[in-house]
Amino acid sequence: MTSFSPDDLSLGASPQALRALIESRRAVRRFLPEAVPDAVIRDCLELAVLAPNSCNLQPWSFQVVRDPALLARLHPVCMSQNAAKAPLIIAVLARPDTWKQACANMVEYWPEPEVPGRIRHFYAKTAPFQYNQGPLGLLGLFKRQLVRLLALRKPLMRKPNSHADMRLWAVKSTALAAENLMLAFQSHGYATCPMEGFDEVRLRKVLDIPRQAIPIMLLAVGRQGEKGVYNPRLRFPLEQHVTWL
Amino acid sequence: MTSFSPDDLSLGASPQALRALIESRRAVRRFLPEAVPDAVIRDCLELAVLAPNSCNLQPWSFQVVRDPALLARLHPVCMSQNAAKAPLIIAVLARPDTWKQACANMVEYWPEPEVPGRIRHFYAKTAPFQYNQGPLGLLGLFKRQLVRLLALRKPLMRKPNSHADMRLWAVKSTALAAENLMLAFQSHGYATCPMEGFDEVRLRKVLDIPRQAIPIMLLAVGRQGEKGVYNPRLRFPLEQHVTWL
To answer: Name one GO molecular function term (chains A, B) (predicted).
Structure first.
């Protein structure tokens, strides 16, 4: 749904327009029943996956729940919070388990007639060495020791070298995409609520989530309802978070 | 640096303008030497921390490196990659360790004259119970078992109940903020490169990073240089990542 001409690309959002968009996004907890059109959902997902991500392995997936019966089953899973009565819930999943397929995809979908040699090599050799942790994470354990030794001589990337590292790695890229997703809905006039309050065990059953996938949030989406925002905005002073060097 | 009137808030970025902004963001690996003004950096950090985050505990911090001598020391830490020659590098840190102070801050900085009772209770009782994992994570271990039992009867939030959960939790919110940060720089006409390729042990020494903080990326920032983008954009078909339910 690219509805602007290439000329518009130079426009983009101004700092003022982006600030207004970001400031207008709040966690909204009451929605109107009005459905979100599929074309809008698709447009927002397209913007989500344009987020930067580790080695372009795109370690994310999304379950778009619009079916009223399924939404009704999700409501108690979210401990019956109001936000979970939204007409649309998107389960945002981090995928530490899809890097191997993604390496193959990178070559298959390469957007130029010839895949450059350095790209072939990276996705055939470098990335698999970097991301494969082996059964029980034993290869990762070995790599951790190897890197520790080699890094005595020169700087080296030391992670991800465990399954825990892989989870952090995938959650990071997926959260970058999730922020794009929320801003995209906001730009279309739809409010969102990123929910972390859910029963993960029940969620996995209801949505049949793959064992290795990590649900990082359930994103409630819809038109903002009355008294949709519960609290005033509060951010601690920037000075607490920022060191200037 | 709020440079627009409240009336502009209704404007925000249109879906087209946001798409153009997001599409124009690429990982740029060659920068011009031109410095990034502090006012721009501050504006972008302000937008970063408006990201949604877990229980508003704002588990992030940023080290803004502009000093040429320090930048020169960071270059080898980033395995001497071109992107690390940028005039500005921001170390984006996830903070699983600051929730206790943040609970106190929520009451101290509450933006209304009276702090509502439910807010006081949440940050004095609920949040500490939820996030405190105790020494060696033993309290988390106990909570995991308790939740498992109680959840036999009704849906319950089961995480974060380990130090590993806390790390995922903090990385998630921090990455949401990092995406805002990159889009903000983009809106100001500055390019970025989120670098994960760095030697974490050396980085911690050079920037004196607190032990529990997790550097999720080093963000290189500057004006885009010639041949700054290395590869064509490639995203796998949306159908691979999305399930419609």
So the answer is: oxidoreductase activity
